[in-house]
Design goal:
By secondary structure, this protein is of the alpha/beta class. It has a single domain, classed as Alpha-Beta Barrel (TIM Barrel). The termini are far apart. Belongs to the ycf23 family.
């Protein structure tokens, strides 16, 4: 299905919530629970593994827009041909673990290639946390120029960038926040903040300029579908309430 009205409105109001089932999660019962919770909790969209069987499973149980993340062209093309709604060029962590690092040119080249191949699809690009803020801004400007729809920031406690870490204590979410703040003031493309966000920090991400927050562990670590649903509802409520606070502060 194309991205629905809720998707469009949530991004417009900067209260979008992406639920991540796990890029390497192929456990069907677990995926079904997470997708069901996302649907009932009124999440904006769901990020699933770039696998045709998982895409088919997800499509059979939800009307929410579906996203897959990959840096591998073949996986991306298969996802597009399987009817995925959103492609995210990302999921770098598995390559970092093998000491494989991506350069700005690599991401520019792949982003341009996919944009030309599928001009109709919502396309998001993750900016590697190993890039300096200056490099991220330069890359973001290029991505905006070629028509990328969304940009995602990430963070990791496994990589130290002194220019970043001097500003805030070293956490995944803080690294993502610094990038989000800088990028949201440089480009008009919606920014997705992801990596380590919780119920107590999603509103901070929004105040730093994020239009959407990606959540995984905060949901996946909960036992029972009811707890997952309640947490997603609470996350959405926190993002909406922050809208009301911002509106009041204008006057």
């Amino acid at each position: 299905m194309p991205c629905n009205n809720q998707f469009i409105n949530d991004f417009k109001e900067k209260q979008a919530l992406k639920i991540i089932s796990g890029l390497n999660n192929f456990n069907k019962s677990d995926i079904i629970d997470i997708i069901t919770a996302a649907e009932l909790g009124k999440a904006t969209y769901i990020d699933i593994a770039a696998d045709t069987k998982i895409i088919s499973l997800a499509r059979s149980i939800t009307a929410l827009p579906l996203c897959t993340s990959s840096i591998l062209p073949k996986q991306i093309y298969r996802s597009i041909n399987s009817g995925i709604d959103i492609i995210e060029i990302g999921n770098f962590d598995s390559f970092y673990a093998k000491s494989m690092l991506f350069k700005s040119y690599d991401i520019k080249h792949l982003s341009y290639k996919i944009r030309k191949f599928a001009p109709h699809i919502k396309l998001c690009v993750t900016l590697p946390y190993i890039f300096s803020i200056k490099e991220q801004i330069e890359l973001a400007k290029y991505l905006e120029y070629i028509g990328i729809d969304m940009i995602q920031t990430e963070g990791s406690i496994n990589y130290r960038n002194n220019s970043k870490n001097q500003i805030l204590p070293l956490t995944k979410s803080n690294l993502s926040l610094i990038s989000t703040y800088s990028l949201s003031r440089t480009v008009t493309v919606p920014i997705i903040a992801s990596s380590g966000f919780t119920l107590s920090t999603v509103a901070i991400a929004k105040s730093y300029g994020a239009s959407c927050v990606g959540i995984k562990s905060t949901i996946c670590n909960l036992k029972g579908i009811e707890k997952k649903i309640n947490m997603i509802k609470a996350l959405k409520r926190e993002l909406r309430n922050n809208n009301e606070i911002l509106s009041v502060n204008k006057y």
